C-alpha cells in the first residue's frame, strides 16, 4: 500500500544519510521476518555495502537452513552462512539447565558474530571502511517500549535473538523498524516482494530446538525432535491452519521414558509434547484447540515414523501460568 511504500522510502533516505557514501553494515539474519525486512530495507539504501550473516547453530528445524539459504540468496547479494553446529553442540555438552543453555548459546552467537565482523570489516583498508561500523537490527516498536526507549544510536540493545552483544563491539545501530508493529513489518515485507515463507514465518526462538529438548542437547536428540517437529508442522500446514496458530513448538522430553507397545514388542521410548498456541504478541497465549482428527494424524504419524518416540501428549496450559516454550 501507499503507506508501506512511504515507510520504505523514508527509511531508505534516513539510512543513506546515516551510513553515508562509504559506510558498511552487517546484519545478523535469524531466519525470522524482522531481521529479514530490516536487512532488505538497508540493502535498498546501501546495496552491496551490506553483508548479511546467518548462523546455523545445528538446532534449527528440519530443512530450515536450506530454506533460509534459498530464500535469502534470492534477496540478498552478500550472504554469509556460517556452519557452527560443532561449535555450539560442543559448548552445550553435558548442560541441562535452561538458563545455562541460553547463556552458552548467546555467548557462542557473539563469538561467531565477532568472527564474521572481522571477516567483513577487518580485511578492508581504512579508506574503504569508513570510520564507523554499522549493525542492522530488526528492533520493533514494542521492543523499544519494553526496553524503556533506551536503545539509542551508540549503545547496543541486548537483543534476545543473539543474547546481547558485548560492549566492546563498536557498532552504530541501524534500526529501520523502530516505529513498526509486527503486522506492519509483514506488510512492508510483502511490499518489498520478500518470499512469503519469510514474511509469514511463525516466531522461532534464537536458541532454536536447544530449548525444546528437556535435558542435554545432543545431535541424536536433535534429529529425533527434528523428525517429530517436521511431521507436526507438515500436518498443520496441510490442514491450512498456519496463520491461525501463533507458534507450534514440539518438545522432546529427552530425560523421560515411558512404556509402550508396538507390534508385539514392549517399547521404552520418549514422550513428545505438542504445544500449539494462539497469541497476539507472545506476552500472553492460549492453547490452541486443534481439531481432534488433526491431532490424531500427528500422533499416529509421529509414533509410526519416529522410532524413539512412543507417546504424544498435548499441552493445554495457557500463558500465564505456563510460558510458550518449555524452557
Ligand atoms: P515464552 O516461552 O517466554 O516465549 O512464552 C515468548 C516468545 O519468545 C520466544 N522465546 C525466545 N526467543 N530467544 C528468542 O529469540 C529466546 O531465548 C527465547 N525464549 C523464548 C518464544 O518462542 C515466544 O515466541
Automatic annotation (TrEMBL):
<comment type="subunit">
    <text>Homodimer.</text>
</comment>
<keyword id="KW-0436">Ligase</keyword>
<dbReference type="GO" id="GO:0005524">
    <property type="term" value="F:ATP binding"/>
</dbReference>
<protein>
    <recommendedName>
        <fullName>GMP synthase [glutamine-hydrolyzing]</fullName>
        <ecNumber>6.3.5.2</ecNumber>
    </recommendedName>
</protein>
<dbReference type="GO" id="GO:0005829">
    <property type="term" value="C:cytosol"/>
</dbReference>
<feature type="binding site">
    <location>
        <begin position="30"/>
        <end position="36"/>
    </location>
    <ligand>
        <name>ATP</name>
    </ligand>
</feature>
<keyword id="KW-0658">Purine biosynthesis</keyword>
<keyword id="KW-0067">ATP-binding</keyword>
<keyword id="KW-0315">Glutamine amidotransferase</keyword>
<keyword id="KW-0332">GMP biosynthesis</keyword>
<feature type="domain" description="GMPS ATP-PPase">
    <location>
        <begin position="2"/>
        <end position="201"/>
    </location>
</feature>
<keyword id="KW-0547">Nucleotide-binding</keyword>
<dbReference type="GO" id="GO:0003921">
    <property type="term" value="F:GMP synthase activity"/>
</dbReference>
<comment type="pathway">
    <text>Purine metabolism; GMP biosynthesis; GMP from XMP (L-Gln route): step 1/1.</text>
</comment>
<comment type="function">
    <text>Catalyzes the synthesis of GMP from XMP.</text>
</comment>
Amino acid at each position: 500500500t501507499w503507506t508501506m511504500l512511504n515507510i520504505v522510502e523514508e527509511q531508505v533516505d534516513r539510512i543513506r544519510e546515516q551510513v553515508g557514501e562509504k559506510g558498511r553494515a552487517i546484519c545478523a539474519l535469524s531466519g525470522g521476518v524482522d531481521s529479514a525486512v530490516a536487512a532488505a530495507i538497508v540493502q535498498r539504501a546501501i546495496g552491496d555495502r551490506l553483508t548479511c550473516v546467518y548462523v546455523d547453530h545445528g538446532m534449527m528445524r528440519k530443512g530450515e537452513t536450506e530454506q533460509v539459504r534459498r530464500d535469502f540468496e534470492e534477496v540478498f547479494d552478500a550472504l554469509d552462512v556460517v556452519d557452527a553446529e560443532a561449535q555450539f553442540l560442543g559448548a552445550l555438552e553435558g548442560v541441562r539447565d535452561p538458563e545455562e543453555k541460553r547463556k552458552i548459546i548467546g555467548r557462542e552467537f557473539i563469538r561467531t558474530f565477532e568472527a564474521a565482523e572481522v571477516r567483513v570489516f577487518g580485511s578492508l583498508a581504512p579508506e574503504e571502511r569508513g570510520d564507523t561500523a554499522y549493525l542492522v537490527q530488526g528492533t520493533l516498536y514494542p521492543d523499544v517500549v519494553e526496553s524503556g526507549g533506551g536503545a539509542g544510536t551508540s549503545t547496543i540493545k541486548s537483543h534476545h535473538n543473539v543474547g546481547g552483544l558485548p560492549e566492546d563491539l563498536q557498532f552504530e545501530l541501524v534500526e529501520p523498524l523502530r516505529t513498526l508493529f509486527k503486522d506492519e513489518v509483514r506488510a512492508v515485507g510483502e511490499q518489498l516482494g520478500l518470499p512469503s515463507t519469510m514474511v509469514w514465518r511463525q516466531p522461532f526462538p534464537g536458541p532454536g530446538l536447544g530449548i525444546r529438548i528437556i535435558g542435554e542437547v545432543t545431535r541424536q536428540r536433535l534429529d529425533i525432535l527434528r523428525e517429530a517437529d517436521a511431521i507436526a508442522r507438515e500436518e498443520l500446514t496441510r490442514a491450512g491452519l498456519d496463520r491461525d496458530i501463533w507458534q507450534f513448538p514440539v518438545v522432546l522430553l529427552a530425560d523421560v521414558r515411558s512404556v509402550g507397545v508396538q507390534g508385539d514388542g514392549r517399547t521404552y521410548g520418549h514422550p513428545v509434547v505438542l504445544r500449539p498456541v494462539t497469541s497476539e504478541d507472545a506476552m500472553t497465549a492460549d492453547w490452541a484447540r486443534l481439531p481432534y482428527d488433526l491431532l490424531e494424524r500427528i500422533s499416529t504419524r509421529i509414533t509410526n515414523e519416529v522410532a524413539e518416540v512412543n507417546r504424544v501428549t498435548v499441552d493445554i496450559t495457557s500463558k500465564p501460568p505456563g510460558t510458550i516454550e518449555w524452557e
